[in-house]
Amino acid sequence: MSYFAAALVALLAAESLMVAGWGFPNAPIGAPATLLLVHLVVLGWLSLLLCGALFQFVPVLIARPLHSATLPLPALVLLLGGLAALLAGFLGLNGTNAAALPFFPIASTLLAAGFSLVLWNLGRTLWAARPLGLPARFVAVGLLGLAATVAIGITFALVLAGDATTPAALRIFAYGLPIHIVAGLGGWLTLTAMGVSYRLLAMFMLAPELDRPSTRAVLRFGAWALGVAVLGGTTAIVLKQGSAPVFIAAGVLGLLTVILYARDIAHLYRARKRRVIELNSRMAAAAVGSLVLAALLIVVLGSMGALARHAGAVVFLIAFGWLSGLGLAKLYKIVPFLTWLECYGPVLGKASTPRVQDLVAEQHARKWFGLYFIAAWAATAALFLDSAWAFRVAAAMLLVGTTGIVVQLVRARRLDDVPASARFPAGSMRPPLILSLTRSH
Ligand code: HEM
């Protein structure tokens, strides 16, 4: 829950900066302000969200406890410190904070330490559960993507700080940005989200678990796309070869991954036993739709030679339509579920308790989710049209929608939507707002 709280604060902060006109499209795409905004979203929001979800979810996937229940807290502290230092480093590129602590080396050390703890903890947990089921294998590949992203990001940061000066590091800095982005958005965030979504959607819609040949192909193509982009791309760059063929090959594999994944998810929706599905599952479909749209745009723009010009719009759609949309939709189930376990778990069978769905008020949340997705798509369109003012209007709608969703999550956590008479049967207790007391074992 602390990871989720920190992540949501980062999301709201990033959206506020966008409304204020900070970063792209008001500043160039590679400007320090844009770099700060991008990392507030991808590290502060998406990566913390996913780490928090994995600490909770990996034990469920493999039916075993987390390797260490104590490491997530120091990891969170290191990651937050590292993120703050990285953002300060980006600000320093602007000349804004000439105070000049060595922010990039500090960020590199703290982020390396924080992510190493995450990787160690989740890695050991998965290792002990071999042979892994399919969703857990997605997570394992996603974690490799995280390791690659962080390693390349740290190389960039140390080159910017003037501390890494080897020819290989300088070449990776000059040409490696696409690898960093593909490994981060594609490998770490997307493949992990795919693995988690297979399991969560099946669970929440009462659909059969997927272990179809197509699902295994999604994992295989996704892993190959990541491997080709990271290993092939880095090798090509260090050996001074053109990397275009490598990225085309990775792009084709990535496209196959998305097509097969979307087909699988459509199959899950069709095969479900629960006819009337909950809001979180309906909104997950809007997120998957955004991913498919982004993949189509990459193909069309790539074939027109216009991908580089519209990269900002496509990255925005992936970050806000797909990853953040799915994240918010799933939080709208995970938060009530955890809260329900904490509050009513101890009295189950001894007193009558509300259902998990009684903790949420979908009729109120629906409009905020609707606003959120319309705003995310409108902001993408504004970026395509190069309209900075339209982007700020859409960002304001995004901020309002997100705030509405966050209020609903806080209400669920505080059990505000459960009728007072049923809220606290004898023996139950109100869980603290940002600390989860559930144990994974
Ligand atoms: C989930 C993880 C990450 C993702 C998805 C990600 C994504 C990105 C993106 C999209 C850009 C380009 C932004 C632009 O041009 O406006 C970028 C640049 C950069 N990233 Fe990351 N990043 C991640 C993690 C990290 C980490 C952990 C570090 C450092 C410790 C880092 C350091 C950098 C640096 C220094 C640049 C600027 C490179 C340059 O000036 O060419 N990133 N990243």
In words, what does this structure look like?
With 441 residues, the protein is mainly α. The protein is 74% helix and 0% strand. It has helices at residues 2-19, 32-62, 72-93, 103-127, 134-160, 167-175, 177-204, 213-238, 244-271, 279-304, 311-344, 362-384, 388-413, 420-423. The two termini are 17 Å apart. Protoporphyrin IX containing FE binds next to helix 2, helix 4, helix 5 and helix 7. The site of protoporphyrin IX containing FE has 27 residues, from helix 2, helix 4, helix 5 and helix 7.
Reported for the largest beta sheet, the result is: none
Helical region count? Answer: 14
Low-confidence stretches: none
What's the shape? Answer: globular
SSE ordering: HHHHHHHHHHHHHH
Second-tier CATH architecture: Up-down Bundle
For the record, the count of structural domains works out to 1
Instruction: Give the N-terminus to C-terminus distance in angstroms.
Output: 17 Å
Q: What is the name of the CATH superfamily? A: Cytochrome c oxidase-like, subunit I domain
Bound molecules: protoporphyrin IX containing FE
Average the pLDDT over all residues and give the rounded result.
92
- What is the CATH C-level name? Mainly Alpha
Structural category: mainly alpha
Radius of gyration, whole Å: 21 Å
The count of β-strands is 0
Proportion of residues in helical segments? over 70%
Fold-level CATH name: Cytochrome C Oxidase, Chain A
Portion of residues in beta strands equals under 5%
